[in-house]
Amino acid sequence: MTRPINVTILGSGSWGTTVASLVSGNTPTLLWSRRAEVAEEITSRQTNSRYLGDHRLPASLAATADLADAVARADVLVVGVPTQGIRETLEAAAPHVRPWIPVLSLAKGLEQSTRMRPTDVISECLPGHPVGLLAGPNIAGEILEGKAAAAVIATPDPDIAASLQPLFSSVRFRVYTNTDVLGCELGGVLKNIVAIAAGMADGLGVGVNTSALVISRGLAEITRLGLAMGADPATFSGLTGLGDLIATCMSPRSRNRRVGEELAKGRTIEEAVEVLGQVAEGVKTARSVVELAHEHGVDVPICEEVDAVCNEGRTALQAYRGLVRLRPGSEHDAG
Ligand SMILES: NC(=O)C1=CN([C@@H]2O[C@H](COP(=O)(O)OP(=O)(O)OC[C@H]3O[C@@H](n4cnc5c(N)ncnc54)[C@H](OP(=O)(O)O)[C@@H]3O)[C@@H](O)[C@H]2O)C=CC1
Ligand SMILES: O=C(CO)COP(=O)(O)O
């Protein structure tokens, strides 16, 4: 008889806990929380009230605050802490991680100090491990409610993605595979910034035509930067590109979109983040994306306006006026 595969998920926020719930239906799953009281609540009461209200988690899902023990048991490690916490978490975990187990990222940001993608940070902290990601249009609350969704596991080696697929799949959660890790990861990173713009636009009371403009020109920015960095263009019309962009720009539950809506009400970025009380990766990633785009000679006007709102005190209305003043060229050119 073969031994079951043990999966450990690091980070007990809304998405880490949701993914752990999904996986626990397929294989033994352990969720690590940096707070002992949260681990205790998940194990004994099957709730994570801070992030998921009174939603009942599977009884089979165990949680712990012991990082060394959590990673030492893992045959597959999933990193679900927000981007800015990945390095510190994995540096502490590294001595206890078993050799060469696959590691998947759930994060959708860039590390501020280095502009690195989460999978690159993971590879630096855990050298030699196969590293990939799980991404797609996956608003946690909908998945917890059992609404159908799909995601992509991207790893450079297609056999590894295929071997991980059944651990994350369910009747209502379809998991595809892709070898374009760069394209899949960039789609998730950049859509958060475009979603802040979409939230600002809707908060200002624009029409559906304007929202569609933000989404489609946002996709053009994502694709331009992705191509300049070497991603596969086909990836951006898939689940991790257009799919995640649509979900995040449209869902009233998206935290990035909600930040944009709060900004449109006249709140400062600090107030908008405070009101949210959860991570909105686009806020800390906008500046890094703009710098990366400039480094690659790529125009990203929507990301630039969002960066100016997040980091330079520009208002949502000023950002909107800045964008409509842009002179349009060919649809396939910048701007
Ligand atoms: N929620 C969603 O629908 C989806 C989210 N994602 C991505 O998943 C990642 C995680 O997001 P999500 O779970 O939603 O975030 P949340 O804001 O819901 O939760 C963040 C979790 O990470 C913990 N945390 C924060 N900083 C650190 C740190 N430095 N070290 C260890 N733990 C830390 C928090 O702990 P504490 O409570 O103690 O602060 C909390 O448990 C993000 O990159 C997000 O973009 C991807 C797809 C869907
Ligand atoms: O990544 C997500 C959906 O795929 C979640 O988006 P938010 O972080 O904006 O809630």
From TrEMBL:
The keyword Oxidoreductase is assigned to this record: yes
Swiss-Prot/TrEMBL catalytic activity: sn-glycerol 3-phosphate + NAD(+) = dihydroxyacetone phosphate + NADH + H(+); sn-glycerol 3-phosphate + NADP(+) = dihydroxyacetone phosphate + NADPH + H(+)
Predominant localisation class: cytoplasm
GO molecular function: glycerol-3-phosphate dehydrogenase (NAD+) activity; glycerol-3-phosphate dehydrogenase (NADP+) activity; NAD binding
Any one cellular-component term (Gene Ontology): cytosol
Residue span(s) of domain Glycerol-3-phosphate dehydrogenase NAD-dependent C-terminal: 180-319
Residues binding NAD(+), per UniProt: 11-16, 140, 255
Compartmental location: Cytoplasm
Active site residues according to the UniProt entry: 191
Record pathway: Membrane lipid metabolism; glycerophospholipid metabolism
PROSITE patterns: NAD_G3PDH
Positions bound to substrate: 108, 255-256
Example of a GO biological process term: glycerophospholipid metabolic process
Function noted in UniProt: Catalyzes the reduction of the glycolytic intermediate dihydroxyacetone phosphate (DHAP) to sn-glycerol 3-phosphate (G3P), the key precursor for phospholipid synthesis.
Descriptive protein name: Glycerol-3-phosphate dehydrogenase [NAD(P)+]
Organism for this UniProt entry: Euzebya pacifica
